[in-house]
Amino acid sequence: MSGSNLETRSLLDELRNLEKGFFFDLGHPLLNRIAESFVRAAGIGAVQSVSREAYFTAVESVGGDTASGLPPELGVGAGAPKKRNRFPDLRGENNRKSVEALVKSTGKESLQWGIAAGMYSGLTYGLKEARGVHDWRNSALAGAVTGAALALTTDDHSHEQVVQCAITGAAISTAANLLTGIF
């Protein structure tokens, strides 16, 4: 019993130490920050993607509507438009094709999360170094550029969607910067 407690304590110590240092030493703080942000966010994106697919699979197996994400008794009605499943290829002809589609979609989503986090982190650091101050303006610009870049990773992006994502990215990152320390 004490051995498992010791293992748990050492794992918790390792997890606490992750917050203090960087995973990488690429020779420059900017590169370290981008790489670490990319890896952490890509991992989160993979977990989110797989969790979402597990949810849709569970809802479908109990007879729910995966388009709306609701069980049949809570359906959206006959006249309501149906949302399309985000990953329609996951229902392959066999398990192998389904797993391949899951890995492909998870990889794409992980890449998107990683690019967004790495780009945002790198831009905020670079702007802080260039301007000598870390304020809401740095966050707004980094959020706008990251939002626009993220919009460009979608299959069917339009000018309007890119601008909308840039505005949303700027708004979210500015709000996060301004609310830091309040909660």
UniProtKB/TrEMBL annotation:
Which cell locations does it reside in?
Membrane
State a single Pfam family of this protein: Tim17
| Principal subcellular localization | membrane
Q: What are the GO cellular component annotations?
A: chloroplast outer membrane
The record's GO molecular-function terms, alphabetically, read: amino acid transmembrane transporter activity
| Top-level taxon in the UniProt lineage | Eukaryota
**Which InterPro entries does the record match to this protein?**
Tim23-like
Q: Where is this region: Disordered?
A: 70-91
Indicate how the chain sits in the lipid bilayer: Multi-pass membrane protein
The UniProt keywords, alphabetically, are: Membrane, Transmembrane, Transmembrane helix
Please verify whether the record's keywords include Cell division: no
Q: Which residues, if any, are the signal sequence?
A: none
- Keyword check for Transmembrane: yes
Q: What is this protein called?
A: Outer envelope pore protein 16-2, chloroplastic
Source organism per UniProt: Sesamum angustifolium
